[in-house]
Amino acid sequence: MSDKSNVMNVSRETPASAHSGYVMLLVLLAITVIGVWAIMGGLPPVGASKFEKLAFIGTLIGAVMASVFVMVGFYMVQPNQGAVITLFGEYRGTDRTEGLRWVWPWMIRKKISARVHNVHSDKVKINDLRGNPIEIACNVVWRVADTAQAVFDVDDYKEFVNIQIEAGLRTVGARHPYDDMSDEDETTLRGSADIINAELQAELNERLRTAGIVVDEAGLTHLAYAPEIAGAMLRRQQADAVIAARQKVVLGAVGMVEDALRKLSHDGIVDLDEERKAAMVSNLMVVLCGDREAQPVVNTGTLYQ
Fold first, then answer.
1. Which residues share a beta bridge with 181?
2. Which of 11, 54, 88, 190 has the fewest beta carbons closer than 10 A?
3. Cβ-based neighbours of 226, under 8 Å, separated by 6 or more
4. Could you report the per-residue pLDDT of 117-170, keeping only the tens digit for each?
5. pTM flag (> 0.85)
6. 193 pLDDT band (50/70/90 cuts)?
7. CA–CA gap between residue 168 and residue 215 (Å, rounded)
C-alpha cells in the first residue's frame, strides 16, 4: 500500500465569488445618508421617553456599524494582479477582476502580482562537464501563472524562485563543457547559446512548476573561466588560433606551389626533373610559410650549379 502522507496536495486557482465595489459604494452612500438624516431630523425632543432615546441611540449605532461593515470589505485589484481570498484558512478563490471590489469583511485578501518579473542572478562558480571551474550567470523572465500554488504550495514564492534559478543554472552548466576541445561536434556553453538557453528555460519551468511559476525567457549573461585557470585556458585558445592560422597558410601555400608548377610545365618555360621540382617546392614553401621575409640569393651560374 502506498504512503499517501508523502503525496503533496497541489493547489489550483479558481475564480472567487467577489462583488462589484461600485455597487457596495452606493450602499455605503445610502447608509451614510440615512445616518445623517437620523442625526439631523430624528433627534429625540426634550422630555422624550427613555425608549425613544434608546431607539435613537440604537439607530445611530446601527448606521455606524453598517458603514464600518461595508467599508472593511472594499479592496482594489490593479491590472495584472490577483487577490487570493481565504475564509478562516480555507481557500475561496482568486479575484482577477480589475477595479474596486468587495467581499465579506471576515474574508482575508492577499494580493499577488501576475506581472512579468526580471531577475539577474549572481555569478555562480561551478565545474563544467570536464571539471573545469567556470563562472556563470543568467537572466530570467518569470511570472505567476497560478496564484493558489504560489501562495499555498510554497512558503515564499519569490525566495523559492531565486533559489531554484541558482540550482537550475548549476545543473545546466554542469551538463556541458565550456568549450569544444576536441574535433567532435558537441553542445558547449560558449558555442551553443540557443540550445543552452532553451535547456535552461525548460529546466527552470520544471523546477518552478510546483509554485505555479512560468519562465518566459532565460539566457546566460556571463560565462568565463574561473580566475585560477583563466591564464592557462587563454594560452590554449591562443595556441588553437595559431595552429588554425598555420593550417590555413600551409594549405594556401600548397595550392600556390601546385599552380606554379602546373603553369611552368604547361607553358614550357622550364623543364624540371623530380629532384629540381622538390628543391623548388621546398624553396617556395619556405618563402610562403615563413614568418619573416625571405632574403633573395642571385644564382649567376646554371640551373644545376
1. none
2. 88
3. 125, 132, 133, 134, 135
4. 999 999 999 888 888 888 999 999 999 999 999 999 999 999 999 999 999 999
5. no
6. confident
7. 12
**Rounded-to-10 torsion of CA 49, 52, 54, 60:** -150
Sole residue written with cell 618555360: 269
∠ Cα 265 270 272 (to 5°): 80
In angstroms, rounded to a whole number, what is the distance separating the alpha carbons of residues 66 and 70? 6
CA distances from 201 to 81, 89, 122, 165 (A): 24, 34, 17, 10
- Give me the long-range contacts of 268-275 (CB less than 8 A, separation at least 24): 270/303
Among 79-83, 187-191, 195-199, which is the least confidently predicted range? Answer: 187-191
Lowest mean pLDDT among 100-109, 140-149, 259-268: 259-268
Contacts (Cβ under 8 Å, ≥6 apart) of 171:
203
C-alpha cell read off for 159: 525566495
Provide the pLDDT confidence category of residue 57 given band limits of 50, 70 and 90.
confident
DSSP result, the chain: ---GGGS-------B---EEHHHHHHHHHHHHHHHHHHHHH-PPPTT--HHHHHHHHHHHHHHHHHHHHHHHTEEEE-TTEEEEEEETTEEEEEE---EEEE--TTSEEEEEE-S-EEEEPPPEEEE-TTS-EEEEEEEEEEEES-HHHHHHTSS-HHHHHHHHHHHHHHHHHHHS-SS--SSS----TTT-HHHHHHHHHHHHHHHHGGGTEEEEEEEEEEEEE-HHHHHHHHHHHHHHHHHHHHHHHHHHHHHHHHHHHHHHHHHTS----HHHHHHHHHHHHHHHH-SSPPPP----S-TT-
Q: Say whether pLDDT at 85 is over 80.
A: yes
